[in-house]
What does this fold into?
Amino acid sequence: MKNNDTDRGYWLFKSEPSAFSIEELAASDNQTAEWDGVRNYQARNRLRDSIRSGDGVLFYHSNIKNPAIVGLASVTREGYPDHTALDPLSDHYDPRSSEESPTWYMVDIQYLAHLPRPLTREDLRSHPVLSEMDVLKKGNRLSIQPVTRKQWEAVLDVSGIADPLSGGK
It folds into this structure.
């Protein structure tokens, strides 16, 4: 676990709301859920190697008419093998993965808040800090993307939300 706010990482996690939505996260036991099913090696490496407990997550609804950042979450469990890859009945099954040599990883995240209104791609493009987000870059379709502290703070500022990760500071 990172020791303080300066060590904290920030991420944007994309999910199609038909697969898993911010509402489902908020309704989960302890408002916590596994972020499973990631099947891209670069995103997998971030889940396994870079994302830490206490990191902030911008929850992004993708593949809808107006994709948008819709809420905030935090990482509560660092990367561990994605058990859905081992389940032949799972949509995320991967016969190349095994308990001895897992191919895929996941983290657990906990719901923090809905944004008062979704921040659409147009909103992001029109903001001097948010316009630099990876999610707006052509060809960047990764489901796990880094976010800078300034971008995290800009989302909070635009949304009028105190930072839930630093006790409202």
In short: Residues 140 and 147 are 13 Å apart (CA to CA). The radius of gyration is 16 Å. The longest helix spans residues 149-159. The chain is about 20% helix and 30% strand.
